Amino acid sequence: MPGTRSSARQAAKNPSSPSSSQSKASPAAGSKRKASGTAPAAKKGKKGNGKGQATIEASMPSNEANEESEDVEMKDAEEPKPTEASNGQSSEATATKQDNEAEEGNSTTEERKEDAPAEKPEPRTNGGAGDENKAEEKNGLESIMDNAAGKGEDRQITEEGTGSKVSQADNAVEDSSKREEATPSNILEKGIIYFFFRGRVGINEPSDVNDIARSYIVLRPIPHGAKLSEGPIGDTNNVRMLSLPKKVLPVSPKDRFMTFVERANASLEDVKQQLSSSDYSTKTVGVRHTPAATPIGEGVYAITKTGRETHLAYILTIPSELGEVQNGVGLRQRGSYLTSAKNPETAAPANASLPQGPEYPKEILDEFRGRGWMPLEPKLLDYENTQFLIIGHTDHALKKAAQPQDGEDQKPEKETPLEEIEKLEHEDEIRVEHLKGDDAIFTDLGLSAQEYPRVQTTW
């Protein structure tokens, strides 16, 4: 929706909460400035691993009754205590329980996220042809999240986010040796970030946080020395899709929420299959509908290191003005989360772990040095089932996460991490304006704007 927001440079003077009085009028949500720049150069990236597996949603089906339990605390040399239920029970046990409840005619069936299917589901996704080779029964959420192997219908390229297939040639990412030299070394990774949530089964238009089934973060890393020009972000098969069992993002240091790598080294086709809607059949109520995921934000991010800590910092470009949806979910105009990765060889409560952990090589496992946790590094996000905590932030979290590395603040050729993040966000503003504001999310991810909800700011 149309709105106003502070520019990157104005916001830098008051990073904790940009004032609406500093904002400028915007003709369309997500549009900030008059664009200027040159055509994007072609860029290639590394291929995804193409590895098929049961999704995290399949391994950890959600249980609405347990959403308010405690999240997970970090501890070395002992089991981490869960303070958030990640609903880590096995799919088989959950399906059995759901079958029993369905046969007893439980009247609360409609309010559950999913019912046990009576037969192998045949999901129909809005992104294209579904996967016809599923070998086991799946619940509603599984049937959409475990469809990554299917291939969607190619559509004509447009600028309005109408289902275009983005290629490597259509890429706003440009290498710059000058930018590489200026980018501080404690920015471990940078790129574009997207935020989504999905409504509960049968709820196409959530009216509050309680109607949300799951939240997602999509990361699209770009090279360390890259800058952004006009156009969409090309498909280089390096997308990470993160799943948050909690409905909301952490908003204070007391909030420690477990997050999982649902897909690593994914293509845009994989992402489309993950975010699309689907229908499936159950014994008691027939066909159920799981809605497509709803976009609620887009911007730039950086994974930074300060001392022994790592942070996931971000600045939003879309929407141009935050609404009650963003506030309810916990999104800020600028924010940062402290991050810590879990050692898969360390025991954990069943409701805070996955049946199958990430397949780290020995050299990565050795880096934990027997500890239960270590600071999150970008390379860990290239392994599906990686588990890590995101810990809520204070008003000054971005400033802390963007502190310069010792000694680099004395080098005139080096920018501070905050300056680099703000520069990237300014470039993203111009890019987004050329892609018609909020539609940039759909164009970037090769999604059809007609088949997904618009960027939502009000319930």
Question: What does this molecule look like?
Answer:
The protein has 459 residues and is an alpha+beta fold. Helices cover 19% and strands 21% of the residues. The chain contains 11 helices and 13 strands. Strands 2-3-5-6-13-11-10-9 form an 8-stranded antiparallel β-barrel. Residues 1-54, 61-73 and 76-163 have low confidence and may be disordered.
Topology:
Layout: H1 8-13, H2 56-59, H3 91-103, H4 140-145, E1 173-175, H5 177-182, E2 187-199, E3 212-222, E4 226-228, E5 239-244, E6 256-266, H6 268-275, E7 278-282, E8 286-290, E9 294-306, E10 309-318, H7 324-329, E11 334-342, H8 362-368, E12 373-375, E13 387-391, H9 397-401, H10 417-434, H11 440-445
Antiparallel strand pairs: 1-4, 2-3, 2-9, 3-5, 5-6, 6-13, 7-8, 9-10, 10-11, 11-12, 11-13
Major sheet details: 8 strands, antiparallel, barrel
| Strand line-up in the sheet with most strands | 2-3-5-6-13-11-10-9
Q: Strand portion, in percent? A: 15-25%
Q: Got a strand count?
A: 13
Helical fraction equals: 10-25%
Structural class by SSE content: alpha+beta
Order of helices and strands: HHHHEHEEEEEHEEEEHEHEEHHH
| CA gyration radius, whole angstroms | 21 Å
- Rounded mean pLDDT is 74
Distance from N terminus to C terminus (CA atoms, Å) equals 12 Å
Outline: globular
Uncertain ranges: 1-54, 61-73, 76-163
Q: Given the structure, what is the number of helices?
A: 11
